[in-house]
Design brief:
5-stranded mixed β-sheet; mainly beta; 6-stranded mixed β-sheet; about 525 residues; Immunoglobulin-like; 4 domains
Length: about 525
């Protein structure tokens, strides 16, 4: 019996792999065939090969479905469904041209490959029909996505607990596990903490951007240096051309632990106390220099008054360790008038100048400036000021002389040496540089000023400034974690007006915030950890 059909059919693939017949489609027959349908597909295998992953990158192939039964013996083929064996694969199946095929008829559908990443994608297209011998027909499909693929290792890392002040680097491997070049364009570190950071290791990896070939990797570091004892968390973000993961992320967690803490107590001096010993060259070449010193000493005296220094002042020469007059101090009625006769020591002294030796002899126990004398006070800063235009002929080394002078104070930093002499090392005009003295000024941080200068007033003011106890600076007894420092003055927390100087390990107050005499200064701080533990 012949089958007379009028077909107007369309097939649409939905997300649940169902097909719908167009509402305008209908099937009419003059009696169905009594035989069986026979399905055949072409091709039975599709290899898409390599396809780059990217926006709009696809490849499509057509599959023909035929009913190869004959009109004499065959029957109508009904296609029930066309679907993927693995619905997660990046293949798309188009709608069929018809789902009812008389003997000898055929229809088609299209398979489109759109790879997501660098991966082999192998599955099957399954065609369910009423063929009694082959209820489900298979079309094998395979293809490979070509793309870079970033992989960070480890993706999570816990530094654990680290002592404040210590550092711990953790390597992060940036690998290309894809099959095309990975282009790393940048790094970012997302964190609310200042304790975590990323080091791209450019000394080894080179400057960004990087091109990482398939199978290769680069190593970067996340560094943890805790400044406090709060928990920390951060995420390193790596930007690349990976189409699936353009911003790869790895998480780090950590915590700081306080190793120890310290509290330094200071009592502000009522006044800056300073004992100043002038050692003046009295040889035949020193008339002009002595005159400059005496003429400009007013500037020295005025600066002492401005700084409100509790001072004592005495003068010796380069050939005699005895004081040339009374000790001068804050109670001296005419400081300038009494200093000038001492400073103008004459030019009849020895031509073999020994300034270091005379300062040493003057500072012996029982001598005018030695321990137990009225001049050398335990709580006062000690300054030696050498004025000469000739080399030093003292018999011992400058280092030994310096060590002795520093031993006069319980704290070696309480002694300083200054000089007004010929320029170091070649001198100036007819004035020679003064050896031994120069080395002592350098070792103590003192001033070495030119004896040839025309402005001795500024010289003398600078000497006062550098010869008095600094009431604005307080050296700490241990090394602090800077962010942990807390300063109080007489019980009041000071949030401004001071800075921490790491070079001197000291708290330095601004000029208008210097604590008043008699104040109690407390400095609390955390200690750096023992990073070897």
């Amino acid at each position: 019996m012949r089958l007379n059909t009028s077909l107007l059919l369309s097939l649409t693939l939905f997300g649940c792999s169902e097909y719908a017949i167009n509402a305008g489609s209908k099937v009419t027959d003059d009696g169905l065939l009594d035989g069986d349908p026979d399905i055949e597909v072409d091709p039975v295998k599709i290899n898409f090969g390599d396809l780059s992953v990217g926006e709009g990158e696809t490849d499509s192939r057509t599959v023909t479905v035929s009913n190869v039964s004959t009109e004499e013996t065959g029957g109508v083929l009904t296609i029930d469904d066309v679907y993927l064996a693995d619905a997660t694969m990046p293949y798309e199946i188009s709608g069929l041209g018809a789902i009812i095929l008389p003997p000898g008829a055929q229809t088609t559908f299209v398979v489109t490959f759109a790879p997501l990443t660098a991966e082999d994608y192998s599955t099957k297209v399954l065609i369910d029909s009423n063929d009694p011998d082959e209820a489900t027909t298979e079309v094998k499909i395979l293809g490979q996505g070509v793309a870079p693929r970033i992989e960070l290792t480890p993706t999570t890392y816990d530094f654990g607990t680290i002592y404040i002040g210590c550092e711990s680097p953790q390597p992060i491997t940036v690998a290309n596990v894809g099959n095309a070049d990975l282009e790393v364009s940048g790094f970012d570190y997302v964190t609310a903490s200042n304790d975590l950071s990323v080091d791209t290791n450019e000394s080894v990896n080179g400057a960004l951007p990087w091109v990482v070939a398939p199978g290769e990797s680069r190593e970067v570091f996340v560094e943890y240096a805790p400044l406090d004892d709060y928990p920390d968390e951060g995420t390193v973000v790596v930007m690349s051309n990976d189409p699936i993961q353009p911003e790869a992320r790895a998480l780090q967690t950590a915590g700081g632990e306080l190793y120890g803490e310290n509290l330094d107590l200071f009592e502000q001096a009522l006044k800056s106390a300073t004992d100043i010993l002038f050692i003046i060259d009295n040889s035949c070449s020193m008339a002009e220099e002595q005159s400059n010193l005496s003429t400009n000493f007013t500037a020295f005296a005025e600066e002492l008054e401005v700084l409100d220094v509790d001072f004592q002042l005495a003068v010796i020469t380069t050939d005699n360790p005895a004081f040339r007059g009374d000790i001068l101090d804050n109670n001296t009625h005419d400081l300038v008038g009494e200093f000038v006769p001492q400073a103008v020591a004459g030019t009849g002294g020895s031509g073999t100048e020994m300034p270091m030796e005379m300062a040493y002899q003057a500072s012996q126990r029982g001598a005018d400036a030695g321990p137990g004398s009225a001049f050398l006070r335990d709580d006062a800063f000690l300054a030696h000021i050498f004025v000469s235009d000739e080399p030093d002929s003292s018999p011992d080394s400058w280092a030994n002389y310096l060590a002795f002078s520093q031993s006069l104070k319980t704290d070696s930093d309480m002694f300083i040496a200054h000089a007004i002499s010929g320029d170091w090392p070649s001198g100036c005009g007819s004035a020679s540089a003064t050896n031994n003295v120069y080395e002592s000024t350098v070792a103590t941080g003192g001033l070495y000023l030119s004896v040839c200068a025309t402005d001795w007033a500024s010289h003398l003011k600078a000497l006062v400034d550098s010869s008095t106890l600094d009431l604005s600076s307080f050296e700490l007894s241990d090394f602090p974690v800077p962010s942990s420092i807390e300063v109080t003055v007489d019980g009041s927390v000071q949030t401004s007006g001071w800075t921490y100087d790491a070079a001197d390990n000291s708290i330095n107050f601004d000029d208008d915030h210097i604590p008043a005499g008699g104040s109690t200064i407390e400095v609390y701080y955390a200690l750096y950890g023992n990073c070897a533990e």
